[in-house]
Amino acid sequence: MLQVENINLFYGASQALWDVAISAEVGKITCVLGRNGVGKTSLLRAVVGHHPIRSGRILWEDQEVDGLPSYKRAARGIAYVPQGREIFPLMTVQENLQTGFASLPRSLRHVQDEIFELFPVLKDMLGRRGGDLSGGQQQQLAIARALVTRPRLLVLDEPTEGIQPSIIKDIERVIRLLANRGDMAILLVEQYFEFARDLADYYSVLDRGEVVMSGSGKEMVEEDVRRYLTV
Q1: Is-contact 88 130, C-beta < 8 A?
Q2: Least confident of 39-43, 73-77, 94-98, 105-109
Q3: I need a labelling partner for 95 at 20 to 30 A (CA). Which of 35, 57, 130, 171 fits?
Q4: Do the Cβ atoms of 210 and 19 come closer than 8 Å?
Q5: How far is Cα of residue 14 from the mean position of the Cα atoms in its chain?
Q6: What band does 191 get if pLDDT is binned at 50, 70 and 90?
Q7: Exposure on the CB side of residue 125, measured as CA atoms within 13 A
Q8: pTM score, two decimals?
Q9: Is-contact 44 189, C-beta < 8 A?
Protein backbone atom coordinates (compact mmCIF):
# COMPACT_ATOMS: atom_id res chain seq x y z
CA MET A 1 0.00 0.00 0.00
CA LEU A 2 0.85 3.68 -0.24
CA GLN A 3 1.36 5.51 3.04
CA VAL A 4 1.76 9.27 3.12
CA GLU A 5 2.79 10.20 6.64
CA ASN A 6 2.47 13.80 7.87
CA ILE A 7 4.10 15.44 4.88
CA ASN A 8 4.79 19.16 4.64
CA LEU A 9 5.42 20.72 1.23
CA PHE A 10 6.57 24.23 0.32
CA TYR A 11 6.84 26.37 -2.80
CA GLY A 12 9.61 28.73 -1.77
CA ALA A 13 8.50 30.29 1.51
CA SER A 14 4.84 29.41 0.96
CA GLN A 15 3.59 26.21 2.62
CA ALA A 16 1.12 24.20 0.50
CA LEU A 17 0.64 21.05 2.61
CA TRP A 18 0.46 20.81 6.40
CA ASP A 19 1.04 17.39 8.02
CA VAL A 20 -1.00 15.60 5.36
CA ALA A 21 -1.51 11.87 5.90
CA ILE A 22 -3.39 9.53 3.55
CA SER A 23 -3.11 5.93 2.38
CA ALA A 24 -4.12 3.89 -0.66
CA GLU A 25 -4.57 0.12 -0.52
CA VAL A 26 -4.22 -2.41 -3.32
CA GLY A 27 -7.67 -3.26 -4.65
CA LYS A 28 -9.16 -0.04 -3.25
CA ILE A 29 -9.82 3.50 -4.47
CA THR A 30 -8.87 6.49 -2.30
CA CYS A 31 -10.43 9.78 -3.40
CA VAL A 32 -9.08 13.18 -2.35
CA LEU A 33 -11.59 16.01 -2.63
CA GLY A 34 -11.44 19.77 -2.20
CA ARG A 35 -11.75 23.13 -3.92
CA ASN A 36 -9.21 24.51 -6.36
CA GLY A 37 -5.99 25.64 -4.73
CA VAL A 38 -6.21 23.62 -1.50
CA GLY A 39 -3.21 21.37 -2.24
CA LYS A 40 -4.69 18.35 -4.03
CA THR A 41 -2.35 18.45 -7.01
CA SER A 42 0.60 19.27 -4.73
CA LEU A 43 -0.15 16.08 -2.82
CA LEU A 44 -0.10 13.99 -5.99
CA ARG A 45 3.07 15.70 -7.22
CA ALA A 46 4.71 14.76 -3.93
CA VAL A 47 3.61 11.13 -4.28
CA VAL A 48 4.93 10.71 -7.82
CA GLY A 49 8.15 12.66 -7.24
CA HIS A 50 7.47 15.87 -9.15
CA HIS A 51 7.97 18.07 -6.08
CA PRO A 52 10.06 17.41 -2.96
CA ILE A 53 8.57 17.37 0.52
CA ARG A 54 10.09 19.31 3.41
CA SER A 55 9.30 16.69 6.06
CA GLY A 56 7.27 13.55 6.65
CA ARG A 57 7.52 10.25 4.76
CA ILE A 58 6.08 8.62 1.66
CA LEU A 59 6.18 4.83 1.66
CA TRP A 60 5.23 2.53 -1.18
CA GLU A 61 5.23 -1.22 -0.59
CA ASP A 62 6.93 -0.61 2.78
CA GLN A 63 9.85 1.25 1.20
CA GLU A 64 10.51 4.97 1.56
CA VAL A 65 10.34 6.63 -1.84
CA ASP A 66 10.24 10.33 -0.95
CA GLY A 67 13.93 10.67 -1.78
CA LEU A 68 13.63 9.01 -5.19
CA PRO A 69 13.27 10.89 -8.49
CA SER A 70 10.05 10.38 -10.43
CA TYR A 71 11.53 7.98 -12.99
CA LYS A 72 12.65 5.60 -10.24
CA ARG A 73 9.18 5.74 -8.68
CA ALA A 74 7.74 4.92 -12.09
CA ALA A 75 10.05 1.91 -12.30
CA ARG A 76 8.64 0.79 -8.94
CA GLY A 77 5.13 0.75 -10.33
CA ILE A 78 3.81 4.27 -9.70
CA ALA A 79 1.99 5.77 -12.70
CA TYR A 80 0.60 9.31 -12.97
CA VAL A 81 -2.25 10.73 -15.06
CA PRO A 82 -1.81 14.50 -14.65
CA GLN A 83 -4.48 17.17 -14.63
CA GLY A 84 -4.99 18.42 -18.17
CA ARG A 85 -3.88 15.05 -19.57
CA GLU A 86 -0.55 16.31 -21.00
CA ILE A 87 -0.51 13.97 -23.96
CA PHE A 88 1.85 14.76 -26.84
CA PRO A 89 -0.39 16.51 -29.40
CA LEU A 90 1.87 16.04 -32.44
CA MET A 91 2.54 12.36 -31.77
CA THR A 92 0.13 9.64 -32.83
CA VAL A 93 -1.96 7.66 -30.37
CA GLN A 94 0.40 4.73 -30.92
CA GLU A 95 3.46 6.88 -30.19
CA ASN A 96 1.83 8.36 -27.09
CA LEU A 97 1.20 4.87 -25.76
CA GLN A 98 4.78 3.86 -26.50
CA THR A 99 6.14 6.67 -24.32
CA GLY A 100 4.99 4.47 -21.44
CA PHE A 101 7.74 2.01 -22.34
CA ALA A 102 10.43 4.22 -20.76
CA SER A 103 10.11 2.68 -17.30
CA LEU A 104 9.82 -0.93 -18.53
CA PRO A 105 12.43 -3.61 -19.29
CA ARG A 106 12.70 -4.45 -22.99
CA SER A 107 10.79 -7.70 -22.59
CA LEU A 108 7.66 -5.78 -21.52
CA ARG A 109 7.78 -3.01 -24.12
CA HIS A 110 4.53 -3.72 -25.91
CA VAL A 111 1.00 -2.37 -25.56
CA GLN A 112 -1.14 -4.94 -23.80
CA ASP A 113 -4.34 -6.15 -25.51
CA GLU A 114 -6.17 -5.20 -22.31
CA ILE A 115 -5.61 -1.51 -23.10
CA PHE A 116 -7.88 -1.77 -26.14
CA GLU A 117 -10.41 -3.85 -24.24
CA LEU A 118 -10.68 -1.04 -21.70
CA PHE A 119 -10.59 1.75 -24.31
CA PRO A 120 -11.72 0.27 -27.65
CA VAL A 121 -11.95 3.70 -29.28
CA LEU A 122 -8.15 4.00 -29.16
CA LYS A 123 -7.62 0.92 -31.33
CA ASP A 124 -9.31 2.68 -34.24
CA MET A 125 -7.23 5.82 -33.74
CA LEU A 126 -3.66 4.50 -33.45
CA GLY A 127 -2.48 6.54 -36.43
CA ARG A 128 -4.27 9.74 -35.43
CA ARG A 129 -2.40 12.58 -33.76
CA GLY A 130 -3.14 13.05 -30.07
CA GLY A 131 -4.04 16.70 -30.58
CA ASP A 132 -6.81 15.72 -32.99
CA LEU A 133 -8.68 13.70 -30.37
CA SER A 134 -11.59 15.08 -28.35
CA GLY A 135 -11.02 15.94 -24.69
CA GLY A 136 -12.62 12.70 -23.56
CA GLN A 137 -10.56 10.63 -25.98
CA GLN A 138 -7.40 12.39 -24.82
CA GLN A 139 -8.26 11.52 -21.23
CA GLN A 140 -8.72 7.88 -22.18
CA LEU A 141 -5.35 8.01 -23.95
CA ALA A 142 -3.68 9.53 -20.88
CA ILE A 143 -5.01 6.75 -18.66
CA ALA A 144 -4.08 4.10 -21.22
CA ARG A 145 -0.53 5.50 -21.45
CA ALA A 146 -0.22 5.15 -17.67
CA LEU A 147 -1.55 1.57 -17.80
CA VAL A 148 1.07 0.65 -20.41
CA THR A 149 3.64 0.94 -17.59
CA ARG A 150 1.84 -1.90 -15.73
CA PRO A 151 1.43 0.13 -12.54
CA ARG A 152 0.66 -1.15 -9.09
CA LEU A 153 -0.28 2.37 -7.98
CA LEU A 154 -2.33 4.51 -10.37
CA VAL A 155 -2.49 8.22 -9.49
CA LEU A 156 -5.12 10.32 -11.30
CA ASP A 157 -5.58 14.08 -11.07
CA GLU A 158 -9.17 15.15 -11.87
CA PRO A 159 -9.90 12.66 -14.66
CA THR A 160 -13.40 14.13 -15.22
CA GLU A 161 -12.21 17.69 -15.93
CA GLY A 162 -13.67 18.95 -19.21
CA ILE A 163 -15.10 15.55 -20.15
CA GLN A 164 -18.57 14.85 -21.53
CA PRO A 165 -20.87 12.80 -19.26
CA SER A 166 -20.89 9.65 -21.41
CA ILE A 167 -17.10 9.34 -21.26
CA ILE A 168 -17.10 10.13 -17.53
CA LYS A 169 -19.21 6.99 -17.06
CA ASP A 170 -16.75 5.00 -19.21
CA ILE A 171 -13.81 6.24 -17.12
CA GLU A 172 -15.66 5.46 -13.91
CA ARG A 173 -16.29 1.92 -15.15
CA VAL A 174 -12.62 1.42 -16.05
CA ILE A 175 -11.35 2.73 -12.70
CA ARG A 176 -13.68 0.43 -10.76
CA LEU A 177 -12.70 -2.52 -12.97
CA LEU A 178 -9.00 -1.86 -12.35
CA ALA A 179 -9.54 -1.71 -8.60
CA ASN A 180 -11.63 -4.88 -8.59
CA ARG A 181 -8.81 -6.84 -10.21
CA GLY A 182 -7.06 -6.62 -6.85
CA ASP A 183 -3.52 -5.92 -8.04
CA MET A 184 -3.52 -2.12 -8.12
CA ALA A 185 -4.03 0.73 -5.64
CA ILE A 186 -5.75 3.83 -7.00
CA LEU A 187 -5.32 7.38 -5.67
CA LEU A 188 -7.71 9.84 -7.26
CA VAL A 189 -8.12 13.61 -6.92
CA GLU A 190 -11.55 14.95 -7.84
CA GLN A 191 -13.92 17.90 -7.44
CA TYR A 192 -16.94 16.20 -9.01
CA PHE A 193 -18.71 14.90 -5.91
CA GLU A 194 -20.93 12.26 -7.52
CA PHE A 195 -17.99 10.67 -9.34
CA ALA A 196 -15.93 10.47 -6.15
CA ARG A 197 -18.88 9.28 -4.07
CA ASP A 198 -19.63 6.41 -6.45
CA LEU A 199 -16.00 5.25 -6.61
CA ALA A 200 -14.46 5.92 -3.20
CA ASP A 201 -13.62 3.06 -0.89
CA TYR A 202 -11.89 5.69 1.24
CA TYR A 203 -11.87 9.47 1.02
CA SER A 204 -10.05 12.50 2.38
CA VAL A 205 -11.04 16.14 2.07
CA LEU A 206 -8.37 18.84 1.86
CA ASP A 207 -8.84 22.47 2.83
CA ARG A 208 -6.03 25.04 2.89
CA GLY A 209 -3.43 22.30 2.68
CA GLU A 210 -4.77 20.20 5.56
CA VAL A 211 -6.88 17.04 5.80
CA VAL A 212 -10.12 18.19 7.41
CA MET A 213 -12.20 15.05 6.91
CA SER A 214 -11.56 11.41 6.02
CA GLY A 215 -13.13 8.00 6.31
CA SER A 216 -14.80 5.15 4.49
CA GLY A 217 -16.58 5.98 1.26
CA LYS A 218 -19.71 4.30 2.59
CA GLU A 219 -19.75 6.76 5.48
CA MET A 220 -19.33 9.87 3.31
CA VAL A 221 -21.98 12.45 4.22
CA GLU A 222 -22.75 14.54 1.16
CA GLU A 223 -23.74 17.68 3.03
CA ASP A 224 -20.53 17.69 5.09
CA VAL A 225 -18.24 17.10 2.11
CA ARG A 226 -19.96 19.59 -0.17
CA ARG A 227 -19.19 22.38 2.32
CA TYR A 228 -15.56 22.00 1.26
CA LEU A 229 -16.31 21.82 -2.49
CA THR A 230 -18.45 24.89 -3.00
CA VAL A 231 -17.00 28.38 -3.30
Answers
A1: yes
A2: 105-109
A3: 171
A4: yes
A5: 25
A6: confident
A7: 21
A8: 0.93
A9: yes
Domain boundaries, the chain: 2-89+151-226
Instruction: Provide CB contacts within 8 A for 113, sequence distance 6+.
Output: none
In this predicted structure, the answer to whether residue 162 has a pLDDT above a threshold of 90 is no
Pair 47, 37: CB distance under 8 Å: no
Rounded CA-CA distance 1/126 in Å is 34
Residues forming beta bridges with residue 9, ordered by sequence position: 17
What is the pLDDT at residue 213?
95
- Separation of first and last alpha carbons in the chain: 33
Contacts of 34-38 with C-beta under 8 Å, sequence gap 24+, read: 34/191, 34/205, 34/206, 34/207, 34/228, 34/229, 35/191, 35/207, 35/228, 35/229, 35/230, 35/231, 36/191, 38/206, 38/207, 38/208, 38/209, 38/228
**pLDDT band of 79, cuts 50, 70, 90:** very high
d(CA 132, CA 42): 29
3-state secondary structure (DSSP) of residue 84:
coil
Average pLDDT over residues 179-205: 94
Nearest to 146 by CA among 179, 99, 190: 99
Alpha carbons 165 and 173: distance in angstroms, whole number? 13
Mean pLDDT of 186-199: 93
Q: What is the pLDDT of residue 231?
A: 63
Which class is domain 2-89+151-226? alpha beta
